[in-house]
Amino acid sequence: QIDLNMIYIVLFVIFQVLYTINSQGSSNSNRGDVSGYCYNTCNDLKTEVLSLSICREAKRTLPRPKVGDFCSIAMEQAFTDVCQPLCMSETPVVRISQTCRSASMEMPRPTVLKWCEHGYKTAYDLTYSKLFDRFNEQSVDYTNEEEVFEEEAIIDASSEDNQEIRNVKYRIPILIDEETKELIVYEGQDIEEAVVIFCRENESNSDELGDCINRLVLSVNEAIESL
Questions:
Q1: In this model, does residue 169 exceed pLDDT 70?
Q2: Sequence-ordered list of residues with C-beta below 8 angstroms from that of 62, at least 6 positions apart, any chain
Q3: Distance CA 205, CA 191 (A)
Q4: What does the alpha-carbon distance between residue 96 and residue 71 come to, in Å, rounded to a whole number?
Q5: Helix 111-135 vs helix 209-225: angle between axes, to the nearest 10 degrees?
Q6: pLDDT of residue 29
Q7: 61 — pLDDT class (breaks 50, 70, 90)
Q8: At 183, phi and psi to the nearest 5?
Q9: Cα dihedral 205, 217, 44, 59 sign
Q10: How many CA atoms lie within 13 A of 59 on its CB side?
Q11: Helix axes 111-135, 4-49, angle to 10 degrees
Q12: What is the pLDDT of residue 219?
């Protein structure tokens, strides 16, 4: 005698298995479509975001072309590490250690590693600054001061006797020690001054202070020009 209840249970299980397989296949297909779209989109944006000036000094540094090549490869990897996750509504992950691991073993040390890290950090900051708004519908418009920063101000503690209220003009995300921090430029403030203050507050190694300032002056100016 056929047990109808058992047949119903078996058919139900088979249906659930087929439904799960189909759902996973559809999800993977959709993700693949998004990934392919973002890959093509980021390829189209690469020349718009990256600049040859990022690795210009590296390409002049001996031994050539080794130093310049490591800088350029790291620069393009940083762009990919930022662009594709932003496009897919994901959070970018800093991969400077993996990207420049081989550079740390190359001679002369630490020249190759230094320029590899320079290429990655500069491109990461620049890409994040230029593409965050493009891919994030709820992102902050740095230039829309009246709506966003109308009531936002800080007290300038540089003069205890005459404290001055200064309005925020730009907020630029900067990668420091694999952590994204904000470089703030105030109304009427020179960009170089803002960079110097930022580097002094965030660069623990005094020997790297000059490199931090030189690198960020370039990337911050380019980021602001693109806004």
A1: yes
A2: none
A3: 22
A4: 12
A5: 30
A6: 46
A7: very high
A8: -95, 125
A9: negative
A10: 9
A11: 110
A12: 81
pTM: 0.52
Tokens 């902050």, located at residue: 140
Comparison of pLDDT for 157 and 34, the residue scoring more: 34
For residue 26, the cross-strand partners are: none
Cα separation, 80 vs 75, whole angstroms? 9
**Structure tokens given for 119:** 């290429």
Mean pLDDT of 45-51: 88
In the numeric block, the tokens 């975001």 are attached to 49
Cβ neighbours, 10 Å, residue 224:
16
Tokens of 69: 């090549």
Q: Would you say the C-alpha torsion 213, 216, 221, 224 has a positive or negative sign? A: negative
Q: Which two tokens stand for residue 170?
A: 């730009």
Neighbouring C-beta atoms of residue 124, cutoff 10 Å: 28
Calculate helix-pair angle for 209-225, 191-202, nearest 10 degrees.
Answer: 130
Contact 182, 171 (CB under 8 A): yes
Q: What are the residues whose beta carbons fall under 8 Å from the beta carbon of 135, sequence distance 6 or more? A: 86, 87, 89
